[in-house]
Amino acid sequence: MSIRLEKMSHTYQVGTPLEEVAVKEVSFEIKNQSFTAIVGHTGSGKSTLLQHLNGLLKPTSGYLTINGHKITPETKNKELGDLRQEVGFVFQFPEAQLFEETVLKDIAFAPKNFGKSEAEALEIAREKAKLVKLPEAVLERSPFELSGGQMRRVAIAGILAMSPKILVLDEPTAGLDPVGRFEMMELFKQLHQKEGLTIILVTHQMNDVANYADHVLVMEEGQLIADTTPKELFSDPSWLKAHHLSLPQTTDFAYQLQQRGISFETLPLTEHELARFLAPKLNQRGKIDG
Amino acid sequence: MGKLLLGRYLQGNSFVHRLDPRAKMILCFYFVLIVFLCNNWQTYLLLSATTLLCAVLSKIKLSYFIKGVMPLIWLILFTVLLQVFFTRGGTVYWQFGPLTLTQFGLLNGVFVFCRFVLIIFMSTLLTLTTPPLAIADATESLMAPLKKIKVPVHEISLMLSIALRFVPTLMDETTKIMNAQRSRGVDFSEGSLVKRIKAVIPLLIPLFVSALTRAEDLATAMEARGYRGGEGRTKYRRQIWQLKDTVSLVFFGLVTVGLIFLRN
Questions:
Q1: How many domains does chain B divide into?
Q2: Whole-model pTM?
Q3: Which of A30, B116, B172, B255 is most solvent-facing, going by the fewest CB within 10 Å?
């Protein structure tokens, strides 16, 4: 059930003057039920890489295997079978994909495409609408009447309705307010922990990487430059700086403390970790002063 | 989408690239007119030589022009075959019912083929060497006299600029929505005709909605920046008529004289 890429490359518009290499010989493995974050600059090939994961794009060389499906440059669309259903893909600004007359019908669209009956699909839609915390009252309304945040929820529910085993998220929280962002990320965390989904998240938010991911891939100019854990990645601020990436806020704060003489074994990633480290120190100090 | 070369612009700095877009547009339309002056092989040779000269001056590989012809090749072949088999006169080589293969027919076929290819070459050359916005500006400038008969030239040209500006954006948007719907199980390229037409709905509705939203946002943004219509507006992109533009016009004039002289 894992995902493996083997020296996979993708070139756009092969054989034209506009030829462009977007992904260069990338190899890595994503374990089943892991939470992988992919970070890197705009135009580093992240989105191109993602579109291979459900067969929207095919490699121009190399191959990848997902859940036992092998995709090579020669693979035909028909051979992909259920891959699209197994890999749920939430695009950037997914609200652009809404089109049905009612919210419920839109969520039920994907299960219907994959062979569920009308009644079954609507049942699933109701269930997923609850999961993404859409109020009951909006279900029969047109998706175009909703607020931006609610539209986003409808779109995500529409993907979850396929009951994917792998969930690919391309900046799912872009353009949301802080509360919306937090709720959305908590939802993904819950899906990851309770339902055992493999999650692949593309983001520019280092805080999210630190808080949720257990595996990080760093892309630069179409190449994979790091395949590691968040702990490992954020323990080397100078490397990050050299590749124009930033630290999560907490780690950055801890790093500044470190430069003022407080030594950490490893730089903490979350507020919780940092607090746990600092609290005893403050206590000690309190005793000395007292 | 990747195959259609007509309407694409290739960056460059050749003689043709630097010509005034107005001159290029006039010449392109003029060329389409004078193609119909040709009626024997000498005239076609002259025009082919002219086209080739322009292509060479643009420093664009000849293979791109050939790619530009490819999407229309069936139309061309169909017309050529009609000409070949239904024209009578001269020596008859072969006959079968209404179909005849004659000397004049063959000749006509070749001429029609040349006519098509020349026109496509020239229009491909115009779009390959001129950015879409420059074409829009040139249209406005060339249509300026129509203001006298109350044609809203400024509005038309603004519409044209905006339309051209949004072609790539809408193409991107289309690809994105197609991908999103494909991920939800829509199949755009298979199934019966009815099924395929139905598959277009999840693409078209979001596309319309986003185009309308975009239009509203753009209109507000333009008003916020003080746009109040064409009255009293100045121009930032200027087009300067240079000597080489006049020279090109004169050259085409000479070609026309040559054509009239060679024609029988």
A1: 2
A2: 0.78
A3: B172
